[in-house]
Amino acid sequence: DIQMTQSPASLSASLGETVTIECLASEDIYDILAWYQQKPGKSPQLLIYDASSLHTGVPSRFSGSGSGTQYSLKINSLQPEDFASYYCQNGLSAPLTFGSGTKLEIK
Amino acid sequence: EVQLVESGGGLVKPGSSLKLSCVASGFTFSSYGMHWIRQAPKKGLEWIALIYYDSSNKYYADSVKGRFTISRDNSKNTLYLEMNSLRSEDTAMYYCAKKGYNNYFDYWGQGVMVTVSS
Description:
The structure holds two protein chains of two kinds. Chain A is mostly beta strands. Chain A is 0% helix and 48% strand.
């Protein structure tokens, strides 16, 4: 099984700041990686797929990058609605595995 | 607009069974694979099952293999998850999700809670 190691587990930032969340796969996943945002009490929503492609309707302040085993999610100019939890996901092969999540909080 | 609505959750005792449903609308259900994903209280996300658009292939996480069965009825636009031999560690919010490009989850339902407790 492919293990996804996500860091940091939590992150505190201010409005307008830029933050980066990292995800490390236990083996090469050939950019078949997605990022999801989950707000409290809500279901997750797809932000980015194929490591760097924005899902429909996702603001351009979100971006993804990486290759091989190392991937990152960058959020520019944090807005109030961005404070949430974020998860990476391996889409290469079953079992489909998630990172443990990053909780982004307002400083 | 894509909509996925889960139902069938509740409080059950260890060892019992439960069947979840997910009714889909806003897309051609019979053309897409579907997933079940769960999230234990205050925990992360765990993928548990995938079914292809035509039910030709099904995949399960090891944690539920042999106990849970994913199925679908394309004539009713409905996805199912039959859960047997339930354990306390199966307590979670269960989400159905539409299979997007590759094995991504591009649309999610609102979730249904399953609590396994004596």
